[in-house]
Amino acid sequence: MSSELARRTMVKAAMAAPYLEREEEHDLAVLWKEKQDQDALHKITTAHMRLVISMASKFRNFGLPINDLIQEGHVGLLEAAARFEPEREVRFSTYATWWIRASMQDYILRNWSIVRGGTSSAQKALFFNLRRLRARLSQSGAATSAPAMYRQISDALGVSEKDVALMDSRLSGPDTSLSAPVSDEESGSAARMDFLVDDRPLQDEVVEGLIDDRRRHDWLYGALDVLNDRERLIITQRRLSEDGATLESLGNELGISKERVRQIENRALEKLRGALVRGNPDMADQQRYA
pTM score > 0.85 for this model? Predict the structure, then answer.
């Protein structure tokens, strides 16, 4: 059986199902809730399938198969039946409408695009109401430009104008695969992804840099052992801290002149350089040809 024939059969069966009077609907809901009576559940859901089909038709403009929308709506209908509380004296159709709509909307958001969007309630409202509001503003002449339209929709739905513009661009065209060729004229045309440039370093370069940084760190802090306490303090405060201390502040801390601090610093740097070269002969070659 083709999908179209199956849909027509489903619609015909739904339209032929009898309406439930309020009292009968209540009794069936009680049977289902208290005794898990499957026959009662079947009667309730069958009687409300026309509601599912009607709501599915309202979402047909999103380009998804209406049979799938009906199936998702049926899932929402079953969820409503599972959660319905007949003692609240609310008609089942009123309660089920929210669950049916929510189930269909979730399905549309999951399948309309390969890029997931509309995760918040405000974003969902924007996704499902943008076209309607845009058409209304265009017909009324209230918005004479895109920025003006975005501003009014932003105010109406409580989202930013940037979000409105982004959603409008997404709804204006289909998804395009990065593997698709740039031109349809030549079979060997380059793919769109070939023109994407990533300025970040390659992974092997990142790992190599991390290893080198760690090696230099170990070399440096190992060489610090050749310094005495005052030399280590000056080098640490002047060269190894984010906010390098001044010669004057270190002189005040140590009770010596800033010129003396400079002399100690230069001597400590020479000692460090010698310790690094002795521990790593390759450094001497690098310095010789630098």
Answer: no
